Amino acid sequence: MKRSKGFTLVELLVVISILGILMAVLLPRIFSGQESGYNFACKTNLRRIYEMLHQYKQNHHGWPREGGVRFLLAPTKDPDIWEGTQTEIGYYFCPSVRSDSQGYQKALAADEWPPPLDQVTSEDTSYAGRDIKNYPRIRNSNREPIASDDNEGSSNHPGSMNVLFGGGMVQQFLYQDWKDKGLIDPEADTVEVGPESPIKTKKCDLTKLKVD
After folding, report:
1. Is 155 in contact with 166 (CB distance < 8 Å)?
2. pLDDT tens digit sequence for 44-88
3. pTM
4. Is the predicted pLDDT of residue 132 greater than 50, yes or no?
5. Which of 118, 133, 168, 173 is the most buried (most CB within 10 A)?
């Protein structure tokens, strides 16, 4: 008798089982690698924003006087700093949330972006800025936060937050470390910034930041 050239049911089940095992092993690593790439790009965004803020400080003899998102977007009103390219617009939106950000899509489609500073909202950037009204004095220190993931409603990065400091350093803080120290709830999946933020330490005081 001639052997059939097709696969038997047992052989198909074996192949499917092997593929299932490979997917279970490889997919988490793929997603982890993708998130690591997004996190690196987010840190790069914050460094670019710092460069623009520092140039603004030199041009205007001081940091922006507006707080929150307006603090971050103030350099876009200086033609010596801002050209309005798609790359520059991307600096203000974390890669992890761009696909879900209506603000990012509107920014790319707009003839001119951003709107006047008195009209910008948290939708116009993925980051929170300095609360200038309550904390106007910014030291050139890597313990003085001036921007961070805004995490308004949901976290930019699962389990972590990136923070930009007055000295130009961007540092990633893990939620698990804050949980281990009892600073946030063990079940927390996001951390707010602003007056009610639970993170107020010598290394990172998120109460000095705000969104709107």
Report:
1. no
2. 999 999 999 999 999 999 999 999 999 999 999 999 999 999 999
3. 0.83
4. yes
5. 173
Residue 30 confidence (pLDDT): 47
Q: Domain map of the chain by residue range?
A: 41-210
With vertex at residue 126, the alpha carbon angle to CA 122 and CA 127, rounded to the nearest 5 degrees, is 85
From residue 161, alpha-carbon distances to 16, 138, 140, 158 in Å are 39, 21, 21, 8
Please spell the DSSP secondary structure of 132-179, one letter per residue: TTT-----SSTTSEEEEE--SSS-SBTTEEEEEETTS-EEEEEHHHHH
151 touches 161 (CB < 8 A)? yes
Mean of the pLDDT values across residues 162-191? 95
Sheet holding 145-149, edge to edge: 170-174, 160-165, 145-149, 127-130, 209-210
Give the pair of three-digit tokens for residue 130: 């300095």
CB 168 within 8 Å of CB 198: no
Q: How many helices (H) and strands (E) does the chain have?
A: 5, 5
Query: In the chain, pLDDT over 90 holds for what percent of residues?
Result: 69
Residues 6+ apart with CB under 8 A from 68: 122, 128, 129, 130, 131, 209, 210, 211, 212
